[in-house]
Amino acid sequence: MLSPLSNSARALTFTARSSDRPWLLTLAPGSVASVTIRFRNAGLTSWERGGAGTQVDLGVRNDSVEFAKAGMAVGWLSDNRIATTAEPIVPPGAVGTFTFNVASADGPRRLSHSVRLVIMT
Length: 121
Fold this sequence. Notes:
Elements: H1 7-13, E1 16-18, E2 25-27, E3 31-41, E4 47-48, E5 55-60, H2 66-69, E6 73-74, E7 81-84, E8 89-90, E9 95-104, E10 109-111, E11 115-120
Antiparallel strand pairs: 1-3, 2-10, 3-9, 4-8, 5-7, 5-11, 6-9
């Protein structure tokens, strides 16, 4: 009989490392920019787009909606979920690509590493 994994054990199967150098984006007023961030799947489980409990999304750290309220969230999944992987499946050891748009509606803005990966349940 299989028993479900505890949340702490499950977290160990989903880990990642940034594959890109730290980034900082500065936007001019009224502009929109496309950003791509890559993370290596360092866990034991594949990330599967559209899979319950296996889809990995790029989220805003601390689930903040600050960027959305400022008008920066262009085409995001929600106010605090930015994008999901471009690849349908990211097996352990492979790199997942997250591409999204940000806008600067009312003045210069800086967006840096205010993101994290989130498992969609």
